[in-house]
């Protein structure tokens, strides 16, 4: 990281601290405590833990990730998340980066792969430690962060969709945007907002981080200031592209409003669920996380209200898949029927499944298919984006195989597990 970037990061820390010092948690018996020996930790991160005096039964877990030059204790004292924990009874993990500059690794090939190594592995070890030692709720694990911590929020949601259910990123960049192969931790093209991809390309980066994963994808709340001169504003739109694609949504918002005079909030719904929520702050700088915003995070994560319903178990969703194959020596065709068994229309659909080893798609109809093997996503075409309640559509593919002409074991439609006929 250059000297200028260190100065910018340091200024970020000073301004953030000055703005929020008055909001530090009030005195109580609960204290921030350092935990050691919490599990696999390849980059020697430090872990600080805040457990309120009173926690709910089977408490949710929030990971709060600091900015460059920061520490876990500084993020604890300079933000409202511990105060929110006192109010709502969840547990907060504050990781600390230990490398020079105290930025988190969001750029190495190891960090951008599920169980690949580096900082994300250490953070996930912290989560698993808390879930085990404090009887935490594995279905309510969340992550938030500012600047470097916002970039890590994107990385954790992308590489560990099996661990994190939602995230809130304050002034970050998309998953994979900061990727480098030369050992550098800084990607100027991304930081300047000059790394532009299609929604499909951004989504493919996330899907490639955990090949074979077909479960539900995390929800994402994105915050960015239009005057951010450190991680520039185009990264806001690129994150929206990525997470709407990952969640199988249109890039056109379902709703638009202004919770505060300088804010524009767009929401992207699947049924009654805002899978992506994006808040643009007119004139906002890189120091986006300020007083009052933590409550919006609590509301988005549903930490301030009733627990959201759990995801449906396999085979009990609002969709049913029929997958009929016809095979020969080295090839096969598959006719796929997607039935909407729910009560609301599915608008903009994305069908996920994993082909058996050795199968490779050579052509398809009524959908786009990517990639050609492994964990495949089939997406609607312009003429068939809507599946009405009680109706179905047919798609299909032709593939080669090396001996296994079997069917995929499971299917998800827009992140929801489908029954298989």
Automatic annotation (TrEMBL):
SUPFAM superfamilies: alpha/beta-Hydrolases (SSF53474), Carbohydrate-binding domain (SSF49384)
Domain spans labelled CBM2: 312-421
UniProt name for this protein: Poly(Hydroxyalkanoate) depolymerase family esterase
Leader sequence residues: 1-29
InterPro entries from the UniProt entry: AB_hydrolase_fold (IPR029058), CBD2 (IPR001919), CBM2/CBM3_carb-bd_dom_sf (IPR008965), CBM2_carb-bd_dom_sf (IPR012291), Esterase_phb (IPR010126), Plant_Biomass_Hydrol_Est (IPR050955), TAT_signal (IPR006311)
Top-level taxonomic group: Bacteria
Keyword terms: Hydrolase, Signal
The keyword Oxidoreductase belongs to this UniProt entry's keyword annotation: no
Organism: Kibdelosporangium banguiense
